[in-house]
Design a protein that fits this description.
InterPro entries: Fibrinogen-like_C, Fibrinogen_a/b/g_C_1, Fibrinogen_a/b/g_C_dom, Fibrinogen_C-term_domain. The protein has 367 residues and is an alpha+beta fold. It is built from seven helices and ten strands. Strands 1, 2, 3, 4, 5, 6, 7, 8, 9 and 10 form a ten-stranded antiparallel sheet that branches.
Length: 367
């Protein structure tokens, strides 16, 4: 703005000089008309420059005004932003302070609770010790007797747990041919705990490791004569006896096993020191709804094919007669079997001195 004014003043002085020179020249000629025309022309030029200068000044002032307004607006926004940041910081500081205070209060309460519990526990211990001392003074023999009983129970419980753990560790989970069992004689049957092959079988079974390469599941053993085989339907369904003595595995368990795959049956008869066997390449029992109907395959062996006579028959006991005879065969023979009429083979009947004469074993083997 100042530079434009200086230039304008310089131009005015320049014009004045030119006018003076022109006036000198014109004075000589005394031509007022020319002088007036020149002066008017110069006035017009001066007015035009003055108008332009005024417009430029107005534009500059407007720009300065807008710049000042913008600076004021920015300053106001900066103050608002500072206020927001200050408020957020104060809120954050307050929350942190309150959180720390709550943490200290909680820690103090927790410490106090622990102290109270410790004092209570200490009082209980002192009371218990005092009670024990009092009882010991009054009845030392009774306390010793109680401690002895507790000790014996702990020893018995520990021994039972150890036995259970060892049994679970060394008891195999399958009955296979030519299988050697750790810490078990190869010439004797061993118990098997099934967990995968027969999901419905929740009891150990006995595996024969001797006959024909081993791997036979024993479903019946009758050799000592100490177990009564004249039993009702429920006993034959669920099984009876123990694996280390005479037993019947149970029709329901036999059905579960034979229903899981294809099995063959091996019957071993020992009488007066002579050993005979009968093999059937297929064996299965139906479920209880079909009275455990017997299914047999082809026979081979040395004991005679007496069991084929009962093929397709339902199981009978003295309290559930499913045979085809007019009399109750199970009651007549004091046993239980797949009777048809008069049985050709009846290993379950009562026989005096049975354990002195021979034994009967029934085996299953998977294909």
């Amino acid at each position: 703005m100042l530079k434009n004014s200086e230039r304008f003043a310089e131009k005015v002085e320049d014009i004045k000089d030119k006018l003076w020179n022109l006036s000198v020249k014109l004075s000589a000629e005394d031509s007022f008309a020319i002088q007036d025309r020149v002066i008017n022309t110069m006035k017009i030029q001066i007015n035009e420059h003055s108008t332009k200068l005024q417009n430029a000044s107005e534009i500059t002032n407007d720009a300065l005004s807008k710049t000042a307004s913008l600076l004021l607006s920015l300053n106001s926004q900066s103050e608002n932003f500072q206020l927001i940041i200050r408020e957020y910081y104060q809120n954050l500081l307050g929350n942190v302070t309150r959180g720390v205070e709550d943490l200290f209060i909680g820690n103090r309460n927790f410490t106090q609770t622990l102290q109270n519990q410790f004092h209570s526990f200490k009082d209980d211990v002192n009371f218990t010790r005092s009670s024990i001392e009092s009882r010991e003074n009054s009845s030392t023999g009774e306390i010793r007797r109680i401690l002895q009983i507790i000790t014996e129970e702990l020893i018995t419980s520990f021994a039972s747990q150890v036995e259970s753990s060892l049994t679970g560790f060394f008891m195999p989970e399958s009955c296979k041919k030519n299988r050697s069992i750790l810490l078990h004689p190869n010439a004797t049957p061993y118990p098997v705990k099934y967990r995968t092959e027969f999901p419905d079988l929740n009891t150990p079974i006995l595996c024969d490791t001797i006959s024909d390469g081993g791997g036979w599941i024993i479903i019946q053993r009758r050799s000592t004569g100490t177990v009564n085989f004249y039993r009702d339907w429920e006993d034959y369904r669920d099984g009876f006896g123990t694996l280390d003595n005479d037993f019947w595995l149970g029709n329901e368990k036999i059905h579960s096993i034979t229903n899981s795959g294809r099995y063959e049956l091996r019957v071993i008869l020992v009488y007066l020191g002579k050993r005979r066997f009968a093999n059937y390449n297929k064996f299965s029992l139906a479920d209880e709804d079909k009275n455990y109907t017997l299914t047999l395959g082809t026979y081979r062996g040395t004991a005679g094919n007496s069991l084929t006579y009962h093929n397709g028959q339902q199981f009978s006991t003295y309290d559930r007669d499913n045979d085809k005879d007019s009399v109750n065969c199970a009651e007549f023979f004091t046993g239980a079997w797949w009777y048809k009429n008069l049985s050709q083979l009846e290993p379950q009947r009562r026989v005096a001195g049975y354990h002195e004469q021979g034994s009967f074993l029934g085996y299953l083997h998977s294909w």
